[in-house]
Amino acid sequence: MDSTKDSDMDIASDSVSLGLLEDTLRKTMLSASGAELDAALAELGWAEMLSDMSDVALPLVFRLLGETGSHASILNDVLLETIGGLPGGTPPMPYAGGIWVVWERESGEGNPTLGGLPLREVPDGQLLRVSEARRALGWWLVGSARAMLALARRHALDRVQFGKPISSFQAVRHKLAETLVAIEGAEATLSLPGADNVDLNSLLAKAAAGKAALTAAKHCQQVLGGIGFTEEHELHNHVKRVLVLDGLLGSSRELTRKAGAGLRARGTVPRLAQL
Fold first, then answer.
1. How far apart are CA 83 and CA 78, in angstroms?
2. How deeply is 164 buried, as exposed, middle or buried, from its count of CB atoms within 10 A (0-12, 13-18, 19+)?
3. In sequence order, which residues have a C-beta less than 8 Å from that of residue 92 and are 6 or more positions away?
4. Range 197-223 average pLDDT
5. For 87-98, what is each residue's pLDDT tens digit?
6. Cα 154–chain centre separation
7. Residue 51, C-beta contacts closer than 8 angstroms, at least 6 positions apart
8. CA–CA separation, 209 vs 185, rounded Å?
9. Which of 109, 180, 193, 265 has minimal Cβ neighbours within 10 Å of its Cβ?
10. Helix 131-158 to helix 198-224 angle, to the nearest 10 degrees?
């Protein structure tokens, strides 16, 4: 009986600690971005989190990047941790269309940006083990999708037409519902334990997250209407961000085709989830 109580107390304590960590990370990301956020995350112990508790840190930190609209160069750290590279590097990453990019760590006026991210095209690169990095990007995409859904939902509740909120219109409700289903499905895929099929699981999870984010961008834009196209509204920042993140480490379209080709060549479909 006592051991059960102790176990429950440990779980409760862990939940409180995780909640405090999430609150701290969210406040930090809302106040900083780019190299400034890199420095803030380093002070919060990002390196230790990635090394000691990556199964918790990756979903939490990258999801919050999406929800807050901030950005940091920590995808470099995930790749370097996977391959045992030296800290502080900028390994080349494959991008949609067969090009390679590096994620600059230092901000500067001369740095090129793609969707607001400091990505610079390089001649070529070497394909690394990207399973964990794909999952991290998947959580970032899911976070961005949830941010767009929250914006569209708020607008649907506030915007009144014909004497009633547009959230009462069936077409609007369907768009929001379809977006939520896509996001929940992507989160479920990202949460699958990939011990037996790590590469395939992460590939499909990144593809599902990319599709969910693109679905959110399309549907939420339609719900917001003209206001969603303006510079004054937040939506366009999230839309540009997910278009870039979807292409990094393979777009949802490319990864889906790659998965299909691999399964056809294998001739069998592995069990990815124990139901």
1. 9
2. exposed
3. 100, 101, 102, 122, 124, 125, 126
4. 93
5. 889 999 999 988
6. 22
7. 81
8. 8
9. 109
10. 20
CA of residue 53 relative to chain centroid, distance: 18
Dihedral angle sign, alpha carbons of residues 10, 16, 19, 23: negative
**Parallel/antiparallel/unpaired status of strands 160-161 and 164-165:** antiparallel
Phi-psi region of 16 (alpha: psi -120 to 50; beta: other; left: phi over 0): alpha
Give pLDDT tens digits for 114-153: 778 999 889 888 777 899 999 999 999 999 999 999 999 9
Note the pLDDT of residue 74.
96
**Alpha-carbon separation of residue 27 from 20, 91, 205 (angstroms):** 11, 29, 28
Q: Which residue has the tokens 């777009």?
A: 251
Cα distances (Å, whole numbers) of residue 94 to 122, 250, 268: 10, 7, 28
Length of the chain: 275
Residue 17 backbone dihedrals phi, psi, to 5 degrees: -60, -40
Other beta carbons less than 10 A from residue 102's beta carbon = 18
DSSP state of 225: G
In the numeric block, the tokens 């990202």 are attached to: 190
CA torsion sign, 139 to 183 to 263 to 96? Answer: negative
What the block records as the tokens of 237 is 């920042």
75: helix, strand or coil: helix
